[in-house]
Amino acid sequence: MINKLVEKIKKTGAPIVVGLDPMLKYVPSFIKEKAFSEYGETLEGAGEAIFEYNKGIVEAVCDLVPAVKPQIAMYEQFGIPGLIAFKRTVDLCKEKGLVVIGDIKRGDIGSTSSAYAVGHLGKVSVGPNSYYGFNEDFVTVNPYLGSDGVNPFLDVCREEKKGIFVLVKTSNPSSGELQDKKIQDDNGKPLYELVGEYVDKWASSCMGDKYSYIGAVVGATYPEMGKVLRKIMPKSYILVPGYGAQGGKGKDLIHFFNDDGLGAIINSSRGIIAAYQNEKYASYGESGYADASRAAVLDMKQDIAEALG
Question: Under CATH, to which class is 2-308 assigned?
Answer without folding.
Answer: alpha beta
